[in-house]
Specification:
- The structure holds three protein chains of three kinds.
- Helix content of chain A is 27%, strand content 29%.
- By secondary structure, chain A is an alpha+beta fold.
- Chain A has a single domain, classed as Ribosomal Protein S5, domain 2 (2-Layer Sandwich).
- In chain A, helix 2 packs across helix 3 and helix 3 packs parallel to helix 5.
- Chain A is elongated, with a radius of gyration of 19 Å.
- The relative contact order of chain A is 0.18.
- By secondary structure, chain B is α+β, with helices and mostly antiparallel strands.
- Chain B folds into three domains: 73 residues, RNA polymerase II/Efflux pump adaptor protein, barrel-sandwich hybrid domain (OB fold (Dihydrolipoamide Acetyltransferase, E2P)); 74 residues, OB fold (Dihydrolipoamide Acetyltransferase, E2P), CATH 2.40.50.140; 122 residues, 2-Layer Sandwich (Ribosomal Protein S8, Chain: A, domain 1), CATH 3.30.1370.10.
- Helix content of chain B is 20%, strand content 24%.
- Chain C has one domain: GHMP Kinase, N-terminal domain (Ribosomal Protein S5, domain 2, 2-Layer Sandwich).
- In chain C, a hairpin with a 7-residue loop joins strand 1 and strand 2.
- Chain C is globular and about 55 Å long.
- The N terminus and C terminus of chain C are likely disordered.
- The chains are: A alpha+beta, B alpha+beta, C alpha+beta.
- Chains A and B meet through helix 1 of A and strand 7, strand 13 and helix 3 of B.
Chain lengths: 262, 291, 250
Amino acid sequence: MSGEVSAEIRTSHILDLAADGKRLDGRGPDEYRKITVEPGFVVTADGSALVRIGDTAVLAGIKLEPGKPFADTPNAGVLTTNAELIPLSNPTFEPGPPQPGAIEVSRVVDRAIRAAETIDLTRLCVTPGEKSWVCYTDIHVLDHSGNLIDAALLAAVSALAHATMPAKRFGIAEADYPLEVQHVPIECTFVRLGDAIVVDPTFDEERAAQGRITIATDETGRVVAMQKGLIGAFSPDDVKGVVRRAFVHGDRLRGLATGGAR
Amino acid sequence: MSRGNRPGRRRRGREASAPPSAGERILVLPGEELPVRDLRPGHGTYRTGGKVYASILGLLSARPPFVQVIPLSGRYIPRPNDVVIGTVTDVQTTFWLLDIGAPRWAPLHMTGTPWKVDVGETGRFLRVGDSVVVQVENLDATGRIGVTMVGEGLGKLDGGSIIHISPARVPRVVGRSGSMIQTITRLTGAQVAVGQNGRVWIGGSPEAIHRVSEVLRTIEENGQRPGLTERIESYLLTTMPTGEQGPEPLPAETAHRDAPGARPASTDDDEEGDLADEADDAAGPGEPGDH
Amino acid sequence: MGSVGAKEVPVLLTADGRRIDGRRLDELRPIRIQAGALHQADGSAFVEWGANKVMAAVYGPREVHPRHLQQNNKAVIQCRYNMAAFSVDERKRPGLDRRSQEISKVIGEAFESVVFAEEFPRTSIDVYIEVLQANAGTRCAGVVAASVALADAGIPMVDLLPSVAVGKIGGAIALDLKKEEDNFGEADLPMALVPQSGRLVLLQMEGHMTEAELAQALDLGVKGCRSIHETMKQALRDRYSVAPLAGGSA
């Protein structure tokens, strides 16, 4: 880690504000920063989206390539999710092999995509046991100003929802066709600041946080993934409370993710 | 790789206050030849082949005998006598390391404090994450930054909050002769200490801290526009919370911390002069030549 | 990285001297540069150049990590050129391959040749280049983005560092190759110019040229760099405009 120790009095101030129902940037406890979604940002990808949540910017790109199905799922395609917390995006990130933080983002995003059955994997099968599509979702964090997980999944599902199967290019079909997305998971992340639990933490709020919790929901009313992170604890009632809030936010964010998609 | 293509070494220096020049603001970029005659290359410039060029992005300031470029961006570059706000990043047996937003961490030696600290006892006085107001004493050739906490207005900060602004915007936040910062403190009731390194401590109610933070963001985004003090004043007056029409006057001690190095208040409170002017005003006492 | 199924060599140059996208031999692709594109970095820039999209960020001068890289008399300049997995036709495995490491090295050395590193002993100036969408000339786009990012970060240097590749297509010397020209052309020669001194601090070549062609290529590249230099300066002026009420620095 290179420098960037947060000032204790700033942390205290964040906690004092939270006790009062306030936040450093003037938001309410249940308010997201401004969110924008720009699908199709990268033409070399088969699907892509640039998502901004406040000052956080995350780019997701989809690549679809023919490959071999796993032996235990001969009739299904393969999903792979990878997140890169590149040192360009934050002063605390170092070059080198993926850090635990990057791996956590990858895995939490991956779990939500899988559990929600975002993609019907059997539709990715070309020849059972021999050939199937491999769907790579690569997440590139460009500007890390907090709440990477929500931005990463939002970018990933938006990229998937706008992706095209390059079937013609690989000689698998006469023409390219859209990748079909059957469910859209959305992750909402909250942090504990004293007694308050606030949504969409900034980088400073994550540093001040006494626990972080992410809830993934889909449009059918299912909770499809959860992740508790950082040092701190939540009561079962806390969890029930954030699940309710995650469903409400999820409905709105889902519209942003799929907006303009077929 | 060969260094053969490198022109002559950059020369460095800053002059003490000089008469203000006429207020045209000229942006220069690295590599641009500076249209100056008979002036010595100062900060942000280099000379090669008998010509002087800008080495950094910034505003041209030509005041005999120097021509220099006043930075508009970048990390804080320490200068002797600057008062800065730092955060403790490491505790050693005889000193603490401070992050002051400079290229290097600054060691604060235990003897540079108002306390009697024994070897190995540093952790009892300041811990990682604590914030302090210190003054830059000296810089050596290795880039080491010597700081002290002995002096008026220096010490550990308690309560309030800290926000970061671009060090290049500090002159604007302070305003000519401290006019901007006086306006802000007068109309918000907050206490404000502006470090030359762009770290600003704000004390007061959460509401006051929030209002000051908002105003500082506005100044940071509009730092090059004229008439800013008036606009900030009218913004603060129109957004003043009800029942808070007359903020209490500030303790004199705070007002001093407001504008480290600022000149004593004068009648010349407008800020229509050039930015270079303000940069010098807020830059503190002149630096004795090269270091 | 030839595209799948494309086996025929396309006609890269028509009889009347037009290239596949209609450009003349000495014409650049459109370039758009945004100075200050990120919030966390000390300086940043986003470059869209033809179908390239490249982001650059600069951190520092700051404490050196790992510390053994620290130099007592100057800042160490650490450059990392990286391509996003989805930036090319065939997905690229994440991480730095040998090509990326070589490019990182030559770009880092190019910047070391112009930055006044001795002003900041024992520190590090970290230059990060991320290729988000690639269409030939990404290292040049990376140098341009990083150079603007360095200026945005207030780093002292001799000059900005415009960069462009010159190549040989259909037997003719051409400026700023795009992907098909790079794939099927006879040579590719990326360079970076210090406009103030007129010297080159990045120079590579792949392919083959005659001595006369090489001389022509160098001249054409320098001309291209000088044009890109103007675009770079304008991007910085746009961000740091000092005209009254001309818009804040976003």
